[in-house]
Specification:
By secondary structure, the chain is α/β, with parallel strands linked by helices. It has a single domain, classed as Phenylalanine Hydroxylase (Orthogonal Bundle), CATH 1.10.800.10. It has 13 helices and six strands. A four-stranded mixed sheet has the order 4-3-6-5. The protein has a two-stranded parallel sheet with strand order 1-2. 42% of the residues are buried. The model has no long low-confidence stretch (mean pLDDT 95).
Length: 307
Amino acid sequence: MSTSITPGQGLTTTKAPFIENAQANGELYIHQPYELYSEENQATWRKMYEAIRPKWEKYANAKFMEGVENLMLKPDAIPRLDEINEFLSPLSGFSAKPVSGYVPAYLFFDCLRNRSFPTTITIRDGQSLDYLPEPDIFHDIAGHVPMHTDRKFSDVLVRFGEVARFAAIRARTLTSDQDEINRVVESNIKAMARFFWFTVEFGLMREKGEMKVYGSGLLSSSGEIEHCIESDLVQRFPIQLEWVVNQYFEIDKYQPLLFFVESFDHLFGLVDDLEQWLKDGKLDNVSPGEPAVNPEDLQSFLMAETE
């Protein structure tokens, strides 16, 4: 498959010929062809940044705001990932790694273990500013990456990648019954996905007596970042590992249930606990429900290269 690519053609989510070509060619890790962004793409970034900046100042945790300043995020232009990495790498060793689309679960977590963050280069359509089911560069760069400038938080991500690696290694020591292996690994993946969702994506933190946001799904939504703190419709509880790994979630609505940690040291300790639970078999039979584990995610763990 080959599609004509011209400067300014656009890198709009689900409508980008450059991405279609990369996927057709089996290219997962790509480069950011900055010249392809259209003026509409740039306008979308400006609108979203303008809408969310005052919400960050009110609701985001202090480390996130430090990260925004350290990355020199521009309100008027989509970031160039090379420039982001020039600021990011000296602070935590992390880098944003452009990808053409969905990254299977094990590969995603293994990137984190190696201090690389798979980063979408497309941006949502200007008609869907506050929500889309797929990640985009605003969610990934404006929502995730400022947190990666903090060494303690970035170490949490690395530690999480190490837990995923152990899960893949452990899968090879299980029974010879392939159906049972699949069931256990699916349960492990589901537990890790839920933990990641309720912390890295939708986590809250108590900071100087106030509830603040550190989860990227909240930090990249100008509507939900306010809703999650102010609304009486949101339940906010101290995080409990046994609850989180058994709690399903839905991605297409504002979250009615969120959990808060006390610090990034607290979060790091929880990842240690998660690994111990994995070793003890406590993640082998978590409750059913969302998120579903697709065959590609399952195979990414079963076929993982862990040497």
